[in-house]
Amino acid sequence: MENLHDKRKVYEKSQLIESEIKQNPIEQFRDWFLDASENPAVSEANAMAVSTLEEDGCPRTRMVLLKEYTYEGFIFYTNYNSRKGKAIQNNHKACLHFFWPNMERQIIIKADLEKIAENLSDGYFHSRPKGSQLGAAVSPQSQVIPNKEFLEEKLKELEKQYENTEVPRPAHWGGYIAKPYEIEFWQGRPNRLHDRIIYELDGLDWKISRLAP
After folding, report:
1. Mean of the per-residue pLDDT values for the chain?
2. Measuring CA to CA, which of 9, 31, 155, 200 is 20 to 30 A from 183?
3. What pLDDT is attached to residue 213?
4. Is 105 a catalytic residue?
5. Could you say which residues bind FMN here (predicted)?
6. CB count in 10 Å sphere of residue 148
C-alpha cells in the first residue's frame, strides 16, 4: 500500500478570466493549442483522450491524435471496425480531453461524432508515410490475433504486393469529425480555486459560464 495523500502541487502559472477569453470556443481552443504547440515541455500537443460508451454501459478511453480542427469540429482518424468505431456507430456522442500538465491546463469537449467525406479520408490516408498506410491496412484493430508474428507476416505480404504501387485506403478506415456542443477550459490556480469556463451551444450561439472548481 502507498499513501498518496501528500502528492500535490501548486498551480500558479496562469489564469482564465472572462474579460480575456474569446467569444467562440474554437478560437479559444486555437489560442491554447498554439500555446501548447509552441511550448517545448509539451511533446504532443494534439494528443487527446477520446471516451466512448460501450455496449455494457461502461465508458472506454484511449489516446488519439487530433489531425485537424475547424469551426465545425475536431477531426481524427481510426479503423471504423475498432472498438471505438463500433461504439461510435451505436452511440454518436463522445468526450474529447486534452491535458497539458506543464501548462496546468485541460480542455473537455462533449461532441456528436460523424464520419467525414470519403474523399477527405482518401486525401489524409495518402498523405501518410507508406508504412503507416500499410499498418492501417494490415491490422484488424481491436480483434484478437494469435500472436505478434501474425501481423508481421501480413505486413511483409502487403509490402511486397504494393512495392511499386499505391496503397488503397481500406474502406473500413477513415475520419470522424467531433462536432462540439459543450467545451470546458480548465486552468489550474492556487488553493485549488481553479478557473473553469464552460461554453454551451444554444442554437447557433455559445453561452459562456463560470463553474466552481
Report:
1. 95
2. 9
3. 96
4. no
5. 62-67, 77-78, 83-84, 106, 141-142, 186, 196
6. 8
